[in-house]
Structure prediction request, 305 residues.
Amino acid sequence: MANQRPHVPELDDIGPGYVWRDPIRGHRVGCIDAANPDHVRALMDGEAAVLAIQDPPYNLVTFDIRKTGEYIEWCSKWVDNTLDALADNASVYIWLGADQKNDFQPLPDFMIMMRTKSVRPRSFITLRNQRGYGTQKNWMAVRQELLYYVKGNPVFHVQYTDIPKKTGGYYKMVNGELTENLERSNSGCIRPANVWYDIQQVFYRLEENVKPCYAQKPLPAIERIMNASSDPEDLVVDFFAHSGTTLLQAEISGRCCFTADIDPGYCRLTIHRLLRYRQTGLTGWQNEQPLNVTNARQEETMQLF
Ligand SMILES: C[S@@+](CC[C@H](N)C(=O)[O-])C[C@H]1O[C@@H](n2cnc3c(N)ncnc32)[C@H](O)[C@@H]1O
Prediction:
């Protein structure tokens, strides 16, 4: 198996229940419905992950928009499937939105639903976007929400940003002696805390940009989660692959990833992005269209694998 060179499957070959297995590092990409327990079991095939990073459609602008109650019922199903796919000690990170024009849904109802699950809430993180949206009659919306829960007692490795800790003059008495802020720290840089303002959101000029994927998460955010809540070689799951960010970061960070999407096109794109990265070292297509390539271009690209 180890010598077998992986290739991008044809779109016609990717149907519901299809699972692509990577012969090099053991990653998997399934065309599955995250809310279907049989599909998720087929993807996991008896393995248990220590980290889940889930980024479902937020029920706001894109994909299908449902009534909040229906959406939460659907979430409850894929959350159960996620918890079944995890080891006894594991971390769960869930990206979610809060619509300020609709009672901040689905975030509050989702949080209430999570109280019924066998996990403990640990943090409520906000990723601050550099660009926002909204009218001049309201505060501009620049945030993406990230909920962090734990099952059992998983690892947590403290993280540091690359922002130097320069703040002097922040004194504290230690054993009767007045100390400076910088003296009390193990690192010259600050910790990310629960507001991440140092990570650039994905936009068209970044190499990691994948043009048809408007819901793409930045690789550095996924790297931070993986570094904090898993160790090298650990298994990570993400049932909403889209552009395949979690899979790609798992490859870069030396983790194994089982990912999935209900849409065969995004499954194919996810596999394509991984294999192209291995071939070229590029993390995205910047402003090109990987899915709308001509046949000739597609053949040319396929020859790479
Ligand atoms: C917000 S995007 C995920 C973005 C991803 N984190 C990235 O960085 O590219 C949500 C994805 O979930 C997929 N999806 C929607 N319903 C699904 C379901 N029931 N099961 C699996 N995937 C689903 C959509 O096709 C879409 O690609």
In short: Residues 68-84 form the longest helix (17 residues). The mean pLDDT is 89. Residues 164-191 form one domain.
